[in-house]
C-alpha cells in the first residue's frame, strides 16, 4: 500500500516553523548548537539563513518521544552502501505493509505480537517500495517506485524472490514482518545505492494520517470512483471492524463520475491500491497502482505544505509515531526539514507537482515469468544494469558505480 508517504511526512514534521528575528532573542545559555531563551525554550538557528526557530519544552518532549520509539536494530555496516555517491542526496526507503489483522492496529503491535511456532511478529509483506531522494542542495524531491513482484536475488541467501516477500524474512532478532534492513540492503546491492534510512507503515496508519490531514482531494476517473465505492461496500463490515474513524463505519460514497472529489483516509488508501482500472496515464495493473501511489504522495505533500504550522506538524508526528516504524532520528529529520521546506514552499502553486517520478522496471526491460507457480516481474542481468544506470541518471544526473 502507499504507506511510504510517511517518511517524507516524518521528515517534514520535524520542522519548527514559527520564526523570530534573531536579534529579538534574549539568550541565557548556549548548549552546543541549540540556544535557550529566557523562558527556557530551545531556539534553533539556521546557520545558512540566520533565521531562528523556537521549540517549546512540550514540543521538544514530543520529538524526543519519536527518538525513543525508533528502530535501533539496523546495522549500517550490513547495508552494502555505495561509498561514491554524493552526500547532498539523501535516499530513504518507504515501505507499505499488507498487514490488516483486526487485532493489531499499528505496525509495531503486529511486529511485537506472538507469531508462529513461538516466533515474534505477524507474517506480512511489503507491497509498496518507494525510494524518496531528497537533494538538499537543489531542494528537490524525487520518487522512484519498484513493482512489488520484481524478482531479485536476496543478499546473503541463495534464492531469489519477489521483493514484496523480503520484509517478512526473519530479521537479525529472529522476528518476522520487520526486516527493513534486508530490504535496504537488497536495493543497495542491486542498484548501487546508499539507502540507510527507512519508514514502514501499515494500512491503518496511512488512513489515520490522511484523516489527520483532513482528507485529500483527488482527480478521479469515473472507473476509479466506482471501483473505490464497490470495494468499500463489499468490505464494509470488515473495515468497520478493523479500522474506521466514523461511527458505525458510515461514510459518504463517492460520486460515480469523473472529476475532483474529497477522499477520507480509507478511500484514499483504496485509491492507492487500485490495479484493475487504468491510471491517468493509461497504465494498468501494478504499473498503474504505483503511479497512483506516487501521485497520492505528491498530493499529500502539497496538502501539508499549503497549510503548514508547527502545531499541525507536531500533531501529525503524534499521530504517526504509533503507526510507523523507522530508524530515522530526530536530528536527521530536523536537518532535512530545515534544508528542504523553504524551496518546496517556493514551488507551491507554480507547478502541478512538487516531485519528479520514476519507476522500475522501465518499459521494455522486463518480462512476466512464472517461477515456482508464481507470476514475477523478471529482468535479465542486462536489463537490471539498464535500470540501475537509469535510476542513477534520474537521481544524480549520471551513473556512479560503487567500484
Q: How many helix segments?
A: 12
Order of helices and strands: HEEEEEHEHEEEEHEHEHHEHHHEHEEEH
Unreliable spans:
1-37
Tell me the strand percentage band. Answer: 15-25%
Class inferred from helices and paired strands: alpha+beta
What is the subunit organization of this protein?
A: single chain
User: How do the strands of the widest beta sheet line up side by side?
Assistant: 14-11-6-7-8-15
Helix proportion of residues, in percent? Answer: 25-40%
Number of domains: 2
SSE topology:
Blueprint: H1 5-13, E1 19-20, E2 27-31, E3 34-37, E4 42-45, E5 52-55, H2 57-69, E6 89-97, H3 107-112, E7 126-135, E8 140-146, E9 151-153, E10 160-162, H4 180-191, E11 197-201, H5 203-212, E12 216-220, H6 222-234, H7 236-242, E13 259-263, H8 265-273, H9 285-306, H10 310-323, E14 324-326, H11 330-347, E15 355-360, E16 367-371, E17 374-378, H12 381-396
Parallel strand pairs: 6-11, 8-15
Antiparallel strand pairs: 1-5, 2-3, 3-4, 4-5, 6-7, 7-8, 9-10, 11-14, 12-13, 16-17
What does this structure look like?
It is globular, with a radius of gyration of 21 Å. The chain has a six-stranded mixed sheet with strand order 14-11-6-7-8-15, sandwiched between helices. Strands 1-5-4-3-2 form a five-stranded antiparallel sheet. Strands 9-10 form a two-stranded antiparallel sheet. The protein is an alpha+beta fold and 403 residues long. The protein folds into two domains: 2-12 and 70-205 and 308-396, Nucleotidyltransferase, domain 5, CATH 3.30.420.590; 213-291, no CATH class. The protein has helices at 5-13, 57-69, 107-112, 180-191, 203-212, 222-234, 236-242, 265-273, 285-306, 310-323, 330-347, 381-396, and strands spanning 19-20, 27-31, 34-37, 42-45, 52-55, 89-97, 126-135, 140-146, 151-153, 160-162, 197-201, 216-220, 259-263, 324-326, 355-360, 367-371, 374-378.
